Amino acid sequence: MSFDNVFHFDLTGADCLIVGGGKVAFRKAGSLIAGDARVTVVAPKLAADFTRLPEEGYDWIAREFLPSDLADRQFVFAATDDRALNKTIAQACRDNRIPVNVADSRSNSTFIVPAVLQKGDLTVSVATNGKNPGYSRALKSYLDDVLDDRLLEALAVWSDVRETVKVRVPDQSERERILRSVQLVELVAALENESKDNVYRKVIKCLLL
């Protein structure tokens, strides 16, 4: 199974179920709560890490999983330490056409969760096709150090240039040709010594707009 497509969902209000109460479940819960999802955790007990999450951020059902727990769920995360149970949950989700992520098995998952780095308007998703989540987290941390403010400023300049081109150039093919001529490396280099506004004006002048 290959996970080649990447989608970014608005999880606000999405009904998400996590089965399991360990550290993996804790990480899933934290990410979902940050995305304003409605989170329900089903597990007989929770790891101490859960005390770091806001109590109002999730509902805890303190018992073993029941098939009825899947009712009306939009996303399910099987994160128990029982592989047979995780597989059973995954199959039930498939039967009910519910997207499911299984923490210990990409083959039983219908989607995977990449490590996500968010800096301003820039979002970078890092995944290893489900083979090594630890590497994804390590690479995310590395990129967090590498992606400096100039790259974010370059994004802002490029976005402003794009909006100007959209207004001034009615032909789509011509717009695409012009925007392809903008070079990220040159933007970053220019921003080392000049303000965003100055770089924007120079780019527009260079493009003869």
UniProtKB/TrEMBL annotation:
<keyword id="KW-0560">Oxidoreductase</keyword>
<dbReference type="GO" id="GO:0004325">
    <property type="term" value="F:ferrochelatase activity"/>
</dbReference>
<dbReference type="Pfam" id="PF13241">
    <property type="entry name" value="NAD_binding_7"/>
</dbReference>
<comment type="pathway">
    <text>Porphyrin-containing compound metabolism; siroheme biosynthesis; sirohydrochlorin from precorrin-2: step 1/1.</text>
</comment>
<keyword id="KW-0520">NAD</keyword>
<dbReference type="InterPro" id="IPR006367">
    <property type="entry name" value="Sirohaem_synthase_N"/>
</dbReference>
<keyword id="KW-0627">Porphyrin biosynthesis</keyword>
<dbReference type="InterPro" id="IPR028161">
    <property type="entry name" value="Met8-like"/>
</dbReference>
<dbReference type="GO" id="GO:0043115">
    <property type="term" value="F:precorrin-2 dehydrogenase activity"/>
</dbReference>
<dbReference type="GO" id="GO:0019354">
    <property type="term" value="P:siroheme biosynthetic process"/>
</dbReference>
<dbReference type="InterPro" id="IPR036291">
    <property type="entry name" value="NAD(P)-bd_dom_sf"/>
</dbReference>
<protein>
    <recommendedName>
        <fullName>precorrin-2 dehydrogenase</fullName>
        <ecNumber>1.3.1.76</ecNumber>
    </recommendedName>
</protein>
